[in-house]
Amino acid sequence: MEEAIVSAIERISDLLIHEAVFLSGVREEVERLKDELQRMQSFLKDADRKQDQDERLRKRVAKIRDLAYDSEDVIDAFILKVAHQGGFQGIINIFTSICTKPFHLQKIGMKVKTILKKLEDISKNLPAYQISGEGEGSTSISMMQQRLRRTFSHVEEEDVISLESMTEDVLAQLMKQEDRLHVVSVVGMGGIGKTTLARKVYKHNVVKQHFDCFAWACISQKCMPREVVHGVLIKVSSPSKEERELIDKLTEDELIKKLFHVLEEKRYLIVLDDIWKIEDWEILKKAFPPGKKGSKILFTTRIKGVALHADPCNSPIEIPLLNVDEGWRLFKRKAFPENTTESHARSREFEMLGREMVIKCRGLPLAIVVLGGLLATKKSWAQWEKVQRNIHAHLNEVELQNQPYGAVNGILVLSYNDLPYNLKPCFLYLGRYPEDWEISKKELIRLWIAEGFISSSLESGGMSMEDVAENFLEELINRCLVQVCKSDYTGIGAKTCRIHDLLRDLCVDKAKKENFFGIIQPPIDENSAPSLDVTLTASMARRIAIHPRRYVCLKGDRPNLRSLLLFQNESLVELDISKYFSFKFLRVLKVVKRDILSDEEWNVSSEIGNLHHLRYLGLECVGKIILTRSIGKLKSLHTLRVHSYEIKISFNVLFKLERLRHICLYDDVNMCLGARDSLKNIETLKYITIEDLIENDAVLNFTNLRSLGIKFMRSKDVLLFLKALIRLHRLQSLSLVMKQFLIASYQDLEPLSQCHHLSKLCIEGKIQEDPHLKHHVLKFVPANIVKLILWNSELKQDPMVVLEKLPHLRILKLCTISYMGTKLICSANGFLQLDSLMIDRLIKLEEWEIEEGAMPHLRSLRLVRLLKLRMFPEGLSYLTSLQELKLKWMKRSLVQRIEVIDGRKGEDFSKVSHIPSIQIVDTEDD
Questions:
Q1: How confident is the model at residue 164 (pLDDT cuts 50, 70, 90)?
Q2: What is the predicted pLDDT for the residue at 734?
Q3: Which of 60, 296, 441, 576 is most exposed, with the fewest beta carbons within 10 Å of its own?
Q4: Is 910 helix (H, G, I), strand (E, B) or coil?
């Protein structure tokens, strides 16, 4: 895998830059190794798409990968040697005491020469690093995949489940009368039914009556523009034999001009099925004029970015996964195809078992169809039970057959193979997470960087590695390989994501073949031993994730281990980090301890400081975590994330770590802000308490800070600190907490009004109102705020008066006594962008008025413990976009007014009858 080369090159570059003084006598060999690896990297990019079809090539790639890993080990061992001998001064002492080249330098030189020799031997068989031939059987699988993916407008399909609403959406867009050429796009992952939906619409009577001419073209991964344009031209012009012969002789440019001319005076519908690349559309679009009013292009694509590029004015139509009942109906069609009494009886008998397997398909129609086809050949309960035990293996082992869909795995592999080479390790990495895991975007991005998948060489034009990584994730989402679970506060990006189980299986399978990562997961078996002993060996993957279901004991040495993720519960894993030599090259360590209670301490071993290569350290427990000063030795640390009830750590030690970018401490930690050069690299810093703020604008050293959480102990620090923040133009998220009954005045907070770069703001603590002020106390809130949270503010003025005028506000949370008044008013035309509103424990609130036209886009409303609220507002009925209403700890008598009890609707049911989802939790007695 090419990521091994990238990682090795990064380490060598790092060595040449930061440790050059220690390379006397071997620098030339190290630079040669870097050059050779860079040339080999070019070869791997070329070979990347072909190795699945060529056994010779796959073996060579594996050899190159192993040599890259060897190179990385040599470099990391040398850097570790430097660190353990006291850095610069320690090495200088060795140099001055020995006249000849030090032994460890001789050793690194010999190892580098050995690796170079092996690379050169491979190079001789790959002239100029080009692939000399396709190899036996190299194209058979890919050609089969392309044939199976090729679609036709006339093919009838019965596997259409719950596409009625989607059909109406597509028809509505196709019927729009617009002067411009409108591209309608259907987007979704492979096998979800995009082509089925497009075909159903294409043959619809309304469509046939509306358009003058039609054409269907299958684009596929390898688009051939001339053939596509030629095929469309033949279909829309119906040429004679003589005209057809002339058309066949035209060049690509001539065909484009000819088609453009033919379509100019027609209202046409052209379906471009399975288009993959923006570049393909850029070529094809030259053939399509605006035509008569209402002409349309209908896309189907896995890649949302292609759809958005083709027509930025229209949102793509995204096909959802099937629910369980829809999936079961589709499954029954395939598993019980015979319309016989016996078949119906088996359907009822096997329903529970079948539904369990359908759930494993996670709503993907193609997976359900393949599973149904497999089980159609199984007639007994025992056979079905056997398939159920090994369902994923069966889905992955189905061979490609001459049928419209082929095997699920073949189509998923097609999507994977199309990924750019630098996205493949990022995608495979998702397989390390447990099944159905909701993955934090921030954590994932930081892990990608720590693993070396995001090269620092990609930083340019103001883009950080984090920005590059986020773009990579967005690309995976757009390709429908990753699903968004929760959107971030902007409503545009992802906050958390998930990978479909079948895609995760693909990741795990690929990772195993390429030795990319390994997963230790004891099977659930009552007859198994209470613990699982795992012996670490040199042949194991360099990245290991442990998903403990029962006790796991790690034994042996694995010094080449680079990454260790312990999910869920570290108490089930015996891991002695004090034996640091067994983990000396570790880059990523994430440990969760569930056995530490809130009144107990976790003293992290001081030996953790010897993990010199560590880039990501994540520690989590309920009790107190104590980190010693040895953490200051982790010179490569990029991210420190500690989640605990209480944390003890020395911040002065942390700020000596020049590469540290993210400090996430989920407890307040005391610190002094000194002027340190290392502060300029920090992007995330939370949560800290400032007791001794140095009045020399030290905060300005945080030039790259994007997210800050800070707790104040003294009122005089607030104004001074916030004034300095105005000059931190990259700061986007700010959390301010006033501790120990501290009160902030409007004057203290007024500098925030000049923080135009802020988009997320949280303020916890009392905000003092000045009766002499002529304006509202919240006037300081910056106009660009997208998410605002207020806690314990004790405002007496209605906050809605100011907040409803914020033009970009999407999320608003008024929490625990943030407002002490009795009435809230949401005015007409206020909160024009608000998507989510939470009102929590406003202990004096009695009345809430919502005027017609307020909050026109509100989708989520949550009300918590508003015990004095007399009535739900009449204006709830105006909120036609509202999708969910959540009520928690509200008065029982109030909740009953909107409920339907024994078929009888409450007095206020009409106010909420339009809301699809209403959740009521833990009502309170009056």
A1: confident
A2: 96
A3: 576
A4: helix
The confidence band for 259, taking pLDDT boundaries of 50, 70 and 90, is very high
CA–CA distance, 883 with 818 (Å, rounded to integer): 26
What pLDDT digit, counting tens, does each position of 624-665 carry?
Answer: 888 888 888 888 899 999 888 778 877 677 777 888 899 988
Q: Would you say the C-alpha torsion 285, 288, 289, 291 has a positive or negative sign?
A: negative
Token code pair at residue 336: 């019980």
> In this structure, which amino acid lies at residue 609?
G
State the Cα–Cα distance between residues 560 and 73, nearest whole angstrom. Answer: 7
Cα R_g (the chain), whole angstroms: 31
Taking residues 530-558, report their average pLDDT.
71
Nearest-angstrom CA–CA distance, 819 and 790: 9
Beta bridge partners of 669: 688
Q: How far apart are CA 177 and CA 182, in angstroms?
A: 9
Tell me the two tokens of residue 558: 């694995």
Mean pLDDT for the stretch of residues 177-189: 86
Average pLDDT of the chain to the nearest whole number? 79
3-state helix, strand, coil in the chain (%, to 5): 40, 20, 40
Do residues 399 and 407 make contact, with C-beta atoms less than 8 angstroms apart? yes
β pairing state of 563-566 and 588-593: parallel
Number of Cβ atoms within 10 Å of the Cβ of 667: 17
Residues 6+ apart with CB under 8 A from 471: none
What does the pLDDT read at residue 90? 45
Rounded CA-CA distance 783/763 in Å is: 16
181, pLDDT greater than 90: no
Q: Within its chain, how far is the Cα of 435 from the centroid? A: 15
Average pLDDT (594-607) is 75
Q: What is the pLDDT of residue 926?
A: 78
62-76, 248-262, 520-534 — which one is most confidently predicted on average?
Answer: 248-262
CA atoms within 13 A on the CB side of 59: 5
Instruction: Write out pLDDT tens, residues 399-418.
Output: 444 433 334 565 566 567 76
SS3 644: coil
Question: Residue 894's pLDDT is what?
Answer: 95
Task: List, in sequence order, every beta strand (DSSP E) within 262-386.
Answer: 268-273, 296-301, 317-318
Q: Which of 237, 307, 315, 324 is nearest to 272 (CA)?
A: 307
> Which pLDDT does position 341 carry in this prediction?
62
Please determine, for residue 818, whether its predicted confidence score (pLDDT) is greater than 90. yes
Q: What does the block give as tokens for 142?
A: 């890919």
pLDDT band with cut points at 50, 70 and 90 for residue 138: very low
Render the burial of 908-918: b for 16+ CB within 10 Å, e for the rest.
beebbeebeeb
Check if the beta carbon of residue 562 is closer than 8 Å to that of residue 589: no
Q: Which long-range contacts (CB under 8 A, 24 or more apart) does 103-112 make?
A: 104/78, 105/23, 105/24, 105/25, 105/26, 108/26, 108/30, 108/74, 108/77, 108/78, 109/25, 109/26, 109/29, 111/70, 111/74, 112/26, 112/29, 112/30, 112/32, 112/33, 112/71, 112/74
Structure letter (DSSP) for residue 706: -
Residues β-bridged to residue 651: none
pTM, whole model, 2 decimals?
0.71
- What is the tally of helices (H) and strands (E) in the chain? 31, 37
**For residue 782, which amino acid is it?**
P
Closest Cα to residue 88, out of 564, 635, 703, 464?
A: 635
Both tokens assigned to 113: 């020469």
Dump the DSSP string for 736-776. EEE-TT-EEEHHHHGGGGG-TT--EEEEESEEE--TT-SS-
- Tell me which residue of 304, 282, 298 sits closest to 494, measured CA to CA: 304
> DSSP labels for 460-507?
BTTB-HHHHHHHHHHHHHHTTSSEEEEE-TTSSSEEEEE--HHHHHHH
